[in-house]
Write the structure tokens for this entry.
Amino acid sequence: MNALLRNWIWPALCGVLLALLILHYYPHWLGMPERTTTVVPVISAEDIVREQPATQGPYSYSDAVQRAAPAVANIYTSKAADSDTPQAFPTPPLRDYSETLPVPNRQQSSLGSAVILNAEGYLLTNNHVVAGADEILVLLRDGREALAELIGTDPETDLAVLKINLPDLPVVTISPNQQRIGDVVMAIGNPFGLGQTVTMGIVSATGRNQLGLNTYEDFIQTDAAINQGNSGGALIDANGNLIGINTAIFSQSGGSQGIGFAIPANLAVEVMQAIISQGRVIRGWLGVEVQPLTNELAESFGLESREGIVVSGLYREGPAWNAGLLPGDVILHIDQEPVSNGRQAMNQVARAHPGQKVRLRILRDGQAMQFEAEVGVRPSFRG
């Protein structure tokens, strides 16, 4: 038995052990892939802190809000109420969102918001927020308050300019960029008198018009939640720059339904500068009423396209009347620019200086004709 162990079993066991060692440490000797060792990293508490998301960019807009919010003020107005004055605004589908609050002593109060655009104390708000107010109180985010002077209004864009006398006023910055659909925006205002509130959304659309809210409409549409009291507040971009003045909501219940409208900041600033320098906004005017050129009208006029607008009425002794235009004329071009709709034509004439002459190319009874009209000053048709 001992001889058997020495001659066969022990050599076999040694061979098996040697083979196992070779397989474990030198597998490539036998044409097998080498083993890899997985190293488990050790993560310290400091590493965990560094890996958490930063409070910038898409994770937080706190910096943008802190930059713009100090320049957004709460507005409180009051005026004497009479027995015929309603105690609340109605709730049509399209409505502003200033709110009327019942108060004692037959005083009617309303609230809204405003934006400080000038270190000298000039603020922008909506005309409907301050219309008819006997007293306008401005409350800043830092707790200071002051009575405001109404510098002027422009009902046709629903804007008003206020002025307060306080030192070291915060001022909002204006966005230099053109807004795009999908851009992140935030609305800052004073909804329901709760105090300054921020809501977030995106730009849903641009260039909204024909809503019947203002004479001149070029609204930014947003789904940022806007409610009663937000009128005149700021619509800002992700960097805290002003892009619009919140003006109206589309609502069937009176509350936010994700469709709000803001006046673009560039238009609002132009109106503010005109009011400060001239006391009002002076716009060009031709004194015509127009209607779209429908397919039926185009066919009756013998036109192959629907380019142009139809003169449906003229203001007596107005610029177009004096130039010789007649109802039924089709205006095709204004200063060699094709006319596609009445709003575009009205805006083009409004940008002209009173006294400036414009050339009108029209179609009358199938004949093309040229007229020259001297632009007048547009009267104020809204109170």
